[in-house]
Design brief:
Strand content of chain B: under 5%
Oligomer: heterotrimer
Strand content of chain C: under 5%
Shape of chain B: globular
Distance between the termini of chain B: 54 Å
Number of domains of chain B: 1
Largest sheet of chain C: 2 strands, antiparallel
Distance between the termini of chain C: 47 Å
Order of helices and strands of chain B: HHHHHHHH
Chains: A mainly alpha, B mainly alpha, C mainly alpha
Structural class of chain C: mainly alpha
Chain lengths: 318, 223, 678
């Protein structure tokens, strides 16, 4: 019986992220539109878009290989696994011991690898633009991400996400500059990885300004639906990561009663909504950067994360 | 020591260090001047907090001086100079942004390594404040040597002074006399630089110090 | 006493008999080289012997018996030749012979395309024999003799296609660097043997060298073994020699011979010298980090598939040295449990790299056979023409980019876990350096993924750029079997890493006197490097999750979405179908990364020559880079040596009286020294 409950809670987390992801995307688009003094699409529009895409015929280039057809499934599956592993409303679920922070980052890297290959598969120049830029951004963001992991793991003493959240709630680390810097760096890295302004404009139609969109330019129909859903899931994964590492309050810990779960879900949704509103506010206040300023942007994230690590060694006599 | 007061002191000193990095990162003059003003404000907050924590009211005067002089007067004056002389708004860097940031990180590591082994007669807080202050000083110096523009070199010098004040307030019992002399030296330096800047402007129609080299009789090919 | 010696000796005989039989096959290769049946016979025989040696070494490692020794009365009179197979040697014998066996299997198919078999066949088994002997050697003479034999025989194979001038230069530089490496190792052993000159490893192990001697020996071992392994800046021969050899031998050079270099380093520094100092760990760590990043940056600039793979070997050697440096640092501070973790991370990467680098070189060899091209920018679209090779190569690319759930990720994860322990080190220099090296490791992993997206995407995906690519065909079944065996090993080592870690436990016990927690008992087959509460990784669960979510997705899509598919032209944003040359090439793919990193490291300079509007002449785009190793280290060194040689050349043309004066002066100087010493 306990096993069934545990399994149910784990499955609930898995399905919660995939169901909520398009809604979060809808919220960001609505808020952005309102900030730009437009009415904006309805909140549930992304669901309708996915449904429409799933019912459209998929047009595939004649020289596209099996890799091209398999990649959308792989990208969606891997991103879903990554997003489902991050603790959302409860710690200590059935499989939460397998949610290692480094493994999570690497899983998102696998999805990116697959998508970059798909960009090169059909053999157009736009696919190449997207793939090469995406790999450059990844190479700049990974060191910063590792140093963020390092900072958090040093403070918490473990790289298991669920344990980190429990430790941060039960033994608060206090007002630490390192955690602030790590949050700042994680937000920058998250913006870069999710292709938001100022790194990439998800709503652009100019191919030469695209990074993520250029890789998936040839996709249509159900394949495009899976890739769009994967992009929304990746955003959810980063939101959940920020919520779990820096705002772990409200999560159901050892007590898994109905009220604790309900509080957990409610607080999780509140945190995600808050982040979903803050993101477009940030996006509308800056302009998109040109491509060769990305190293400075991500270098700033790296410097913040490196400072966070060094400051850890200075304080508390580490 | 109460943990919260230590955390806040740590936070403010760390904030100054982060702002030094942001100074290195900027490449537009207006942004540099604004960030410098913020650094002076954070410095004054840090000194005020030290005044409360060390129970030394004369430090409040130091904080007020830092806030007024370096937080408002000098940045406003520099804004006016930039506008009046129509100084080119982009700052040229000697080495690229990436290597500069990496050197900055290396300097932070160096200052931590230098200060950490000092063990006699200092508490943990003092040691860490000294590490931060030394890092701010070194970063100010780095900013001075990697910029081609005279106004940003002035700002680098000021940022270095901020680091000195941070170091001095971190150690208990800095007398007011020292502070006044420090303030005077800043003012004098500023006047000298200001005159220098106007003189350069009259003669050479630019405040790019690279231009000075051409008139020293040594032609160097800029890469 | 005598009987025990014989009993212990008997097991070691198996490995030595294998090495001896490989030498016999080599001799046979000379005879059979000209006949068409020679190739299959030699390679089948090598395959059989290598499988036997691998199996013996595996049983020895798993059984965990005490080391087997053997002393033969050949060689130097007062020492003889000692051989010893302990846990470390057993592990490296597995790596060497597994590589040798799979390469022989591959060569059964690939070897048919060899134009001058007589230049390869005799040397190939001798190469395998020499590597086996190096790993088994238990005294300095045997070690150095086998090391030199290994270098010379592989040089002979590198020079197999000696008509091409590039190969001549490659062989020359290879020989110079190999000699330099042997010289350093000779000096190291000389220092360690001390004034008595007893070169047996058993004696060296027992004596404790002074700190100065130990420091010099570590530096010399780093130079000597590092040059064979490919540490920056001693790596310059690697990208010249590895591509010059035939592809199956390139796999051996990159995947196996570099590991023998690492074996030499571990044997000297961990085993013979013993107690390391923290600064040695710092130096090795820093060198490893720099090697990793520079290696992959070099690889990104290449468009020759085999050179790219050779430079990439340098990166992986850097990763292994990071693990070894961490192990040294932890051991120096008495944290043996952490040293065990770092050492096992490094050794796991040794195994992983030999597997996936061989796989990738086999794929490159298959592409070379199918199309006749090594240059990626003349290939493309091979996934349609060579589907099975494409699958195997893809698995190799995913594994080498350290992506879960394959094996490359496991060794990187273990290295990161070792890095996360570093704040417990007392030395502040180490505490600050290790996160920096960790950032370098993360950077190199991300750049490696970019490198292999490029390699796979430009070679196999897209549209064919030349006729050679259009007319490619799938390779023979021997090559495919070899590649798929290695791909299966990549997957197995990725999802069941606990078994590998447990197998490595005796090695860690010998070298750092502690082991990692036993992995076999961990629930769900995860691996737990330190403690369950700290961190764990489960490749099997991740793979299971991926498969189940992919199936669930496919099921939902097939149920709810339409199955309609239509094949059409490429959309390309509405532009008409352009020539295949508008695709991204390998240098254009690397351009953003080149602009970011190569401007400082390689002094990259882009020169664009665009004609004015209305002018119909062609535009030109030129990228100039220089190799910092050649420009700052080897170039000046070569010029200095050349200048000194020119000046010393005058000694060739002296008169008889001048020669007598030289002899007289030397005699007087020696007599003065004797007088002063007295």
């Amino acid at each position: 019986m306990a096993l069934i409950t545990d399994l149910g809670l784990q499955a609930l987390q898995m399905f919660l992220v995939v169901v909520i992801a398009p809604f979060v995307l809808g919220v960001t688009r609505k808020v952005k539109a309102r900030l730009l003094r437009r009415v904006g699409p309805p909140l549930l529009q992304p669901y309708r878009d996915l449904w429409k895409l799933m019912h459209k015929e998929a047009v595939i280039a004649r020289n596209a290989s099996w890799l091209y057809r398999v990649v959308p499934y792989v990208v969606f599956a891997v991103t879903w696994v990554a997003a489902a592993l991050v603790p959302t409303y409860a710690t200590g679920l059935l499989f939460s011991w397998s949610a290692d922070l480094i493994a999570l980052v690497a899983l998102l890297g696998t999805a990116r690898f697959a998508l970059a290959l798909a960009g090169l598969d059909v053999g157009t120049s736009f696919g190449g633009i997207g793939s090469s830029r995406e790999m450059m951004i990844a190479s700049l963001a990974e060191p910063a991400m590792l140093l963020i992991v390092f900072t958090v793991a040093l403070i918490a003493g473990t790289t298991q996400l669920s344990s980190i959240a429990s430790i941060f709630v039960s033994a608060p680390p206090g007002l630490r500059v390192s955690l602030g810097l790590a949050l700042f760096a994680l937000m920058f890295v998250g913006i870069a990885e999710n292709a938001r302004i100022p790194i990439d404009n998800p709503a652009t139609h100019l191919e030469l300004t695209m990074v993520h969109e250029a890789m998936v330019l040839e996709y249509s129909g159900r394949h495009l639906a899976m890739i769009e859903a994967a992009a929304a899931l990746k955003l959810m994964a980063y939101f959940s990561l920020i919520a779990c590492l820096f705002l772990p309050y409200g999560m159901a810990m050892t007590d898994k009663s109905q009220t604790a779960i309900a509080i957990g879900i409610a607080s999780y949704l509140a945190k995600i909504l808050m982040l979903a509103i803050l993101l477009p506010i940030g996006e509308t206040s800056v302009a998109k950067m040109r491509v060769f300023r990305y190293p400075i942007f991500l270098g700033g994230a790296f410097a913040a994360a490196a400072l966070a690590v060094f400051l850890l060694f200075v304080s508390r006599g580490f | 020591m109460p943990s919260l007061s230590f955390d806040i002191a740590h936070l403010l000193a760390g904030g100054m260090l982060v702002l030094s990095f942001v100074l290195l990162y900027q490449d537009r003059i207006i942004a540099v001047l604004n960030v410098f003003a913020w650094q002076a404000i954070v410095l004054s907050l840090s000194v005020a907090w030290q005044a409360v924590a060390q129970d030394a009211p004369h430090l409040l005067v130091t904080a007020a001086v830092a806030l007024v002089v370096k937080g408002f007067i000098i940045p406003t004056a520099l804004h006016r100079i930039v506008r009046r002389l129509e100084i080119h708004r982009e700052i040229e860097q000697v080495i690229g942004g990436g290597p500069t940031m990496l050197t900055g990180l290396g300097l932070v590591a160096l200052s931590i390594m230098l200060v950490a082994p000092v063990k006699e007669g200092v508490s943990i807080i003092t040691r860490e404040d000294l590490a931060f202050a030394l890092a701010v000083i070194l970063l100010g110096l780095l900013m001075m040597i990697t910029r081609r523009n005279a106004v940003t070199q002035i700002v680098g010098f000021m940022s270095l002074e901020n680091g000195l004040v941070l170091a001095a307030t971190g150690a208990k019992g800095m007398p007011l006399v020292v502070e006044f002399s420090v303030a005077f030296s800043i003012l004098i330096a500023f006047i000298v630089f200001g005159v220098f800047v106007f003189r350069i402007r009259e003669r050479f129609d630019t405040v790019d110090v690279g231009a000075l080299d051409r008139f020293r009789g040594e032609r160097r090919d800029h890469p | 006493m005598v009987r025990r010696g014989v009993e212990e000796g008997r097991p070691a005989l198996t490995e030595l008999w294998c090495a001896a039989s490989l030498l016999i096959i080599a001799v046979g290769g000379i005879a059979l080289g000209r006949s068409p049946r020679g190739t299959p016979i030699v390679y089948t025989a090598s395959l059989a012997v290598c499988v036997l040696a691998c199996a013996t070494a595996l049983t020895r490692l798993l059984a965990g018996a005490s080391p087997a020794t053997l002393a033969l009365p050949v060689g130097v009179p007062w020492i003889g030749a000692h051989f010893r197979v302990d846990a470390l040697a057993a592990f490296f014998l597995i790596v060497v012979n597994l590589g040798g066996a799979i390469t022989s299997l591959y060569a059964l198919g690939y070897g048919r395309h060899e134009t001058s078999p007589l230049r390869v066949l005799p040397f190939y088994p001798a190469f395998l024999a020499a590597m086996n002997l190096v790993v088994c050697a238990d005294d300095a003479f045997t070690f150095l003799l086998s090391w030199e034999l290994m270098s010379l025989v592989s040089w002979a194979i590198v020079m197999a296609h000696h008509r091409e001038p590039a190969n001549l230069r490659a062989g020359y530089i290879y020989l110079v660097m190999a000699s330099f490496g042997t010289l350093c190792l000779l000096l190291a052993f000389g220092l360690l043997a001390g004034a008595h000159g007893d070169y047996a490893f058993a004696t060296i192990r027992a004596t404790r060298p002074s700190t100065i001697v130990a420091a010099f020996a570590v530096v010399l071992a780093l130079l000597g073994a590092g040059s064979k392994a490919g540490l920056v800046p001693l790596h310059v021969w690697l990208p010249l020699a590895h591509p010059a050899a035939p592809s199956h031998v390139s796999a051996l050079l990159s995947g196996v011979m570099t590991k023998v270099g690492i074996y030499g380093f571990i044997r000297i520094v961990f085993d013979l010298i013993g107690d390391p100092t923290p600064w040695s760990g710092l130096v090795v760590l820093a060198l490893g980090g720099v090697t990793a990043v520079l290696g992959v940056l070099y690889a990104l600039m290449q468009h020759d598939l085999k050179r790219l793979l050779a430079y990439h070997t340098v990166e992986n050697i850097g990763i292994i040295f990071i693990g070894l440096g961490l192990a040294l640092a932890f051991r120096a501070n008495g944290m043996n449990w952490a040293a065990a973790l770092a050492l096992i991370a490094g050794l796991f990467h040794v195994f992983n790299h030999s597997v996936f680098k061989s796989l990738l070189f086999f794929g490159a060899g298959a592409v070379l056979v199918a199309t006749g091209e090594r240059d990626m920018e003349r290939l493309g679209g091979l996934i349609h023409r060579m589907p099975k090779t494409a699958v195997a190569f893809l698995i190799g690319c995913i594994a080498i980019s350290a992506l879960p759930p394959l094996n490359g990720f496991v060794s990187e994860w273990l290295t990161f876990q070792a890095i996360l322990i570093s704040p417990q080190l007392p030395q502040l220099g180490l505490k600050l350096m290790v996160p920096a090296v960790g950032a370098l490791l993360a950077l190199s992993a991300a750049l490696a993924a970019a490198c292999f997206v490029k390699a796979y995407g430009v070679t196999f995906l897209g549209r064919p750029r030349t006729d050679a690519a259009t007319s490619a065909h799938e390779v023979d079944n021997w090559s495919l079997t070899a590649m798929f065996v290695l791909a299966a090993l990549c997957v197995l080592a990725g999802v069941l890493p606990g078994f590998v870690i447990d197998a490595l436990a005796p090695v860690a016990k010998d070298l750092v006197a502690d082991v990692m927690p036993r992995q076999a008992g961990v629930p769900w087959l995860s691996i737990v490097p330190i403690a369950e509460s700290r961190s764990s990784y489960n490749g099997l669960i991740i793979l299971a999750f991926m498969i189940s979510s992919a199936s669930l997705t496919a099921g939902v899509i097939h149920r709810f979405a339409t199955r309609a598919t239509r094949r059409s032209d490429i959309w390309d944003c509405g532009f008409p179908l352009a020539s295949p040359h508008t695709q991204y090439t390998s240098s254009s793919f690397a351009m953003p990364i080149r602009r970011v990193f190569a401007t400082t490291v390689f002094g990259m300079h882009e020169i664009v020559d665009m004609p004015a509007p209305g002018d119909m002449r062609a535009g030109h785009f030129q990228v100039r880079v220089f190799d910092p190793a050649w420009r700052f280290a080897y170039g000046p060194l070569a010029r200095f040596v050349g200048g000194a040689a020119t000046r010393l050349n005058r000694l060739q043309f002296l008169t008889i009286r001048r020669y007598l004066t030289l002899v007289f002066c030397a005699l007087i100087v020696l007599l003065l020294v004797v007088a002063a010493w007295r």
